[in-house]
Design brief:
Elements (H helix, E strand, L loop, with lengths): L2 H5 L23 H7 L3 H22 L1 H25 L6 H41 L5 H5 L4 H41 L3 H37 L18 H36 L12 H41 L6 H23 L16 H27 L8 H27 L4 H10 L3 H14 L2 H19 L13 H12 L3 H23 L4 H48 L11 H42 L12 H15 L1 H46 L4 H23 L7
Helix pairs in contact: 3-4, 3-8, 4-8, 4-11, 5-7, 5-9, 5-10, 5-21, 7-8, 7-9, 7-10, 7-18, 8-10, 8-11, 8-18, 9-10, 9-20, 9-21, 10-11, 10-17, 10-18, 10-19, 10-21, 11-12, 11-18, 12-13, 13-16, 13-17, 13-19, 14-15, 16-17, 17-19, 18-19, 20-21, 20-22, 22-23
EC number: 7.1.3.1
Subcellular location: Endomembrane system
Protein name: H(+)-exporting diphosphatase
Length: 760
């Protein structure tokens, strides 16, 4: 902040142009972008073409399907570049808008640099742990027969983990990068037309969505093709293609690791800043939301970008990557059991579905256009209705492309009608996605009864408002659970009756049918993410308009966009939760397949009557509440620091309320940033360390049990010897030894039955 302005020597604040502080002296770019920008353009272009050539060469040696996936992803990247240039070509408005936007951008990029610097260090440390574990981990019989060594498996997993973490980080940065540049352009467009402001916000969100989904797909495709060529898959004495997807799990784990801390740190930041700004500004001081006199308003606007844009991009990247990999594993397993002649279609089917997702979502994004004759005087159209039309178009195209994809890739002579059953499974997933969007819209849109009922409850006091809000939140879980349950059962039944059977004649398509339904639900993920990114961009635009004191007519437009943005953000959260519920079913099934491969025994069900399994379920349920409690506590503590700082500034600078003194926005941004990064460690560590701790405790219990069995056997043989030497006086000891041995033998067999003995 300028020193003279800080000391209040430039005259009354209300009479001067609105100037806002820069949080840093220059814009921040990640290291990888700084390296690329330092390379000569011609050299960079040559390297780019060489890289594309290598990628397509590897793809051509793998499968024509991979070439198709590469082509669609690259075209989507080119389209996202066009969207970027289109958005950035729009004007930024008057200087006061630009200065506010610069302050938001600097705060968001500063937090991103610190947060992802911390995450990258933890990722490198975890990569070393994974390397150590895999160097001593047993290989599956299929991997051993193919000649794959432990060291090779370890380095492959670590490389996939680091690539997944890197791509997830880039996905988060892309979401933040576009939002902090589009917000001021939406604000400027709102001075002219509501439809133009909507179009800019949607296309800015579309850029981020295409990059996030495209990177998830092309990252997995590159790994698959590279491992296929490098390991000589399907050649004599090498790995089978049905086992290759198991090598990709590291990619999903890397994406999940980054998404966990991105969501946690960004969520703490945005909620703490929001709570702190509203409690003092709106409640205590009675000033409007996003008022420039509130010292925490910039931190609040920064939180929209780091919490809702960067974190949501990393979150959906992780969801898509996990769904693709788990579906590939299940497809390969089913193809192997059914002896399908060409299993590549079943394995690569998820990549093709998400490639078509990029195409149809692009059509939906470009279907939202501005009207040349629109003006501020014309009635404001309902933005949600416009977005819903684009989503409906995307849904129709998704049904068509899904049916074509199933006929192309899932047709097999062993079950000629199976592709149609799987197409119906995809339709179940698409209907589930649409139902989730509708349910979330119903419970969060201001035009529907739940929100209006909650607003009515607010008229009678804080207590009734809280009671009504908690009640509404609990009620809103019923319909999604029913929809998810119905979709899982329906998809499993359709897959089960597809006609695909194993060598013993048992139907095997049930789990893969559920996987196809999950793909159907995520087949419009790019457009859903576009609507999600629209929310924080519109929210920021409203804040910029309020802080720069634009006319009331402009604020009316941004208020409508902001209200719709809150609904679209909630819609994406509901969509992500629903897809995660389906994906978790797939991940657990894929885990069971991998355990069966390592244990070389069938593992088809989990018996909760076993105490260890039941206790494990209780511990897992407990972790959800403990994690949530620690996260909420972190938000509360951080919000308290913001409240104290804002109160201090209002007391020490009484001229703030009269526009005679300027708030210190940077101080609030620094407080929230440092506190959120500090507070995210404890809940994040709980999610990562708890499974390791439970596994370690289980291994310790097994070791103690084996030691006990060893001593029991030893005691048994001593007792028998004494029995023969001294007569019947020692028979009680012999009987006791027999009982101990029988107990330990049963215990060991139970451990083997539960697939736990392999941990020892």
């Amino acid at each position: 902040m300028d020193d003279e302005l800080e000391n209040g020597n430039l005259g009354p604040y209300a009479d001067r142009p609105r100037t806002f502080p820069n949080m840093r002296s220059k814009a921040y770019n990640p290291l990888i972008f700084r390296i690329l920008m330092g390379i000569n353009f011609r050299v960079l272009l040559i390297l780019l073409f060489l890289g594309l050539g290598v990628v397509f060469y590897i793809g051509a040696r793998t499968s024509p399907i991979i070439v198709f996936v590469f082509s669609v992803c690259i075209m989507s990247f080119l389209l996202s570049i066009y969207l970027t240039k289109w958005v950035l070509s729009k004007d930024e408005g008057p200087p006061e808008m630009v200065q506010i936007s610069d302050a938001i951008r600097d705060g968001a990029e500063g937090f991103f640099r610190t947060q992802y610097g911390t995450i990258s260090k933890m990722a490198l440390l975890l990569a070393l742990v994974i390397l150590f574990i895999y160097l001593f981990r047993n290989l599956t019989p299929q991997q051993e027969s193919s000649g794959l060594r432990r060291s090779t498996s370890a380095f492959i997993t670590v490389a996939a983990f680091l690539l997944g973490a890197l791509c997830s980080g880039i996905a988060g940065y892309v979401g933040m990068w576009v939002s902090v540049r589009a917000n001021v352009r939406v604000s400027s467009a709102a001075r002219r037309s509501a439809r133009e402001a909507l179009q800019i916000a949607v296309r800015a969100g579309g850029f981020s969505a295409l990059v996030v989904v495209g990177m998830a797909v092309i990252g997995i495709a590159i790994l698959y093709a590279t491992f296929y060529v490098w390991l000589g898959v399907d050649s004599q004495g090498s790995m089978k293609v049905t086992d290759l997807p198991l090598l990709l799990v590291g990619y999903g784990f890397g994406a999940s690791f980054v998404a966990l801390f991105a969501q946690l740190g960004g969520g703490i930041y945005t909620k703490a800043a929001d709570v702190g700004a509203d409690l003092v500004g709106k409640v205590e001081q009675g000033i409007p939301e996003d008022d420039p006199r509130n010292p925490a308003v910039i931190a609040d606007l920064v939180g929209d970008n780091v919490g809702d844009c960067a974190a949501r991009g990393a979150d959906l990247f992780e969801s898509i990557a996990a769904e693709i990999i788990s579906a590939m594993i299940l497809g390969g397993t089913m193809a192997r059991h059914c002896k399908i002649e060409d299993p590549s279609g079943f394995i690569l089917f998820p990549l093709v579905i998400h490639s078509f997702d990029l195409v149809i979502s692009s059509v939906g994004i470009f279907s939202i256009r501005g009207k040349p004759d629109s003006s501020l005087k014309s009635p404001i159209e309902d933005p949600m209705a416009i977005l819903q039309k684009g989503y409906s178009l995307t849904i129709v195209l998704s049904v068509l492309t899904f049916g074509l994809s199933t006929r192309w890739l899932l047709y097999t002579e062993r079950a000629p009608s199976a592709w149609f059953n799987f197409a119906l499974c995809g339709l179940v997933g698409i209907i589930t996605a649409y139902a989730f969007v509708w349910i979330t819209k119903y419970y969060t849109d201001y035009k529907h009864e739940p929100v209006r009922t909650l607003a009515l409850a607010s008229t009678t006091g804080h207590g009734t408002n809280i009671i009504a809000g908690v009640s509404l939140g609990l009620e809103s879980t019923a319909l999604p659970v029913l929809v998810i349950s119905l979709s899982i059962v329906s998809a499993f039944w359709l897959g089960h009756t597809s006609g695909l059977v194993d060598k013993d004649g048992n139907p095997t398509g049930g789990l893969f049918g559920t996987a196809v339904a999950t793909m159907g639900m995520l087949s419009t993920a790019a457009y859903i993410l576009t609507m999600d990114m629209f929310g924080p961009i519109a929210d920021n635009a409203g804040g910029i308009v309020e802080m720069s004191q634009q006319p009331e007519s402009v604020r009316e437009i941004t208020d409508v966009l902001d209200a719709v943005g809150n609904t679209t953000k909630a819609t994406t959260k509901g969509f992500a939760i629903g897809s995660a519920a389906l994906a978790s079913f797939l991940l657990f099934s894929a885990y069971m397949d991998e355990v069966a491969a390592f244990a070389q025994e069938p593992f088809k069900q989990v018996d909760i009557a076993i105490p260890e399994v039941f206790v494990g379920g209780l511990l897992g349920s407990m972790l959800i509440f403990l994690f949530s409690a620690w996260a909420c506590s972190a938000v509360g503590r951080t919000a308290q620091e913001v409240v104290n700082e804002v109160r201090r500034q209002f007391i020490e600078r009484p001229g703030i309320m009269d526009y005679k003194e300027k708030p210190d926005y940077g101080r609030c941004v620094a407080i929230v940033a440092s506190a959120s990064l500090r507070e995210m460690i404890k809940p994040g560590a709980l999610a990562i360390v708890s499974p390791i701790a439970v596994g370690g405790l289980t291994a310790l219990v097994l070791i103690v049990a084996f030691v006990q069995c060893f001593h029991a056997h030893q005691y048994f043989f001593i007792a028998v010897t004494k029995c023969f030497r001294k007569g019947n006086n020692e028979c009680l000891g012999c009987v006791h030894g027999i009982v101990e041995v029988m107990y330990c033998t049963v215990l060991i067999r139970q451990m083997q039955k539960d697939q736990i003995s392999r941990f020892v």
